[in-house]
Amino acid sequence: MGWMADETGLEKNAANYVPLTPLSWLNRARAVFPDHLAVVYGTHRKTYAEYHERVTRLASALQKLGVQSGDVVATVLPNIPAQAEAHFGVPACGAVLNTINTRLESDTIAYILDHGAAKVVLVDPQFLPVVAQAIEDMVGPAPIVIEVADDQAGVHHIGQYMEYEELLASGDPEFRWIMPQDEWESIALNYTSGTTGRPKGVVYHHRGAYLNAMGQVISWRMALHPRYLTIVPLFHCNGWCHTWMMPALGGTVVCCRDITAKAIFDAIADEGVTHFGGAPIVLNTLVNSPAADRRDFDHIVEVFTAGAPPAPATLAKIEPMGFNITQVYGLTEVYGPATECTWRGEWDHLQGDDRAAIKARQGVAMPIMEHITVVDEKMQQIPMDGKTQGEIVMRGNGVMKGYLKNPKATAEAFAGGYFHTGDIALQHPDTYVQIADRAKDIIISGGENISSVEVEGVLMGHPDVLLCAVVAKPDEKWGEVPCAFVELKDGHDASEADLIAFARQRLAGFKTPKKVVFQELPKTSTGKIQKFELRTIAKTL
């Protein structure tokens, strides 16, 4: 048996075991980096000492409003300092943070407030009308509304409810944070974008938030004092855990309310931004921005992109502008990013389409994920031949606790001891995973599978195309055929025939779009194109 058989007296105790929580990083940062800038937003510039005090006051004030451990506190806020403060202040009073998508309609917000049973909701004045309507439509008790004015953006206090700064003033700066007794305690509740049926409430624990954030420090090769621009909405997987991560490194969160090329270039040039995350549409915005909106900067900006593979044409243009793009992939259920396309030295010589082809992969598991792979219907590993397709599954500490009040959906998601993503992918011989499509986005034409991602990548290479999305259009002969929806660049005028001919030169005939529709594409708040809306249109064509 050896000496390990007798472990008497080697139990966990207060000295050697502390539940993991991102809250501990902000406590440390107050001691280690008290005078370092923590949060920047226009003239709002707070050091770590000030940030910590504001978070403490928020936690105290929420408790005074009657918020108890395990209660839910919701926010309907853009990426402003109060949203960052809520990420620490809400859990610091023992509560669970529910950041709600600011682009949802009142009916869905009413459902979320009811389902999560929010006690308090922090609301930006811009979204007060929709939240007021949602509260009217609620079945259960209404939450207390706190108005969060944003004078920097000219969004002033309407005066109907208590204002956020008034709330903070009511809090005790000496309040003792309620740290988790168990790292499995819930820290956040995030609702998936319900494209079909009601959204599901994804529950995060302190341990997962801590480890996911820590894993990304490694993946992003971060050193001390990064300057992080909040482009990923903080209501989207809690901003991929990046706000929780910043105090670990004494980093600075640079808030960005409205995502425009000018705002991004200004933040890089004026605030020295070193890192940001965003959907490929953000890269597209930068590549196609007018010269007047651009600024010179002399450092490389590290970018995590996710949501769809960046088009080769976009990558080829953006990297020489001073951006290093790494594709990551994840879902709400896994705290944001879970895989990364880790770059290898042997690829350094690759240029153009060859370089883009590697960067379009979703890659390998991040350090904190135990195992991510692709399996068939019987949960067997698919051949890693770059051709065979299966479903991406994952297991590890960065997977949600489950869906709130929905044990059936939770059990289905975790069948066989893995989280099932519903994403269809292939695996290359080097184990790198590459998404072929969402299961629902694959087009099956005459029995042949067509990847909408592949067709979109080709069309994005056309010089006149700004954005495109390809969906299935019902067809009497083939069952369904590819239909492309395209936004052209300003002043460009490619025709349907031009784009079909362009695609036909680069794709097999059956993969070529049979119809091209020119219109603005419907997008989510994170810039993902809403294909379900386009599928509805395609059925009428």
UniProtKB/TrEMBL annotation:
Its EC number is 6.2.1.44. Gene3D superfamilies: 3.30.300.30, N-terminal domain of ligase-like (3.40.50.12780). Keywords: Fatty acid metabolism, Ligase, Lipid metabolism, Magnesium, Metal-binding. GO terms for biological process: fatty acid metabolic process. Its cofactor is Mg(2+). Residues 28-404 form the AMP-dependent synthetase/ligase domain. It comes from the Bacteria. InterPro entries: AMP-bd_C, AMP-bd_C_sf, AMP-binding_CS, AMP-dep_synth/lig_dom, ANL_N_sf. It catalyses: 3-(methylsulfanyl)propanoate + ATP + CoA = 3-(methylsulfanyl)propanoyl-CoA + AMP + diphosphate. One of its GO terms (molecular function) is metal ion binding. Residues 454-528 form the AMP-binding enzyme C-terminal domain. Homodimer. Belongs to the ATP-dependent AMP-binding enzyme family. This is 3-methylmercaptopropionyl-CoA ligase. It comes from Thalassobius vesicularis.
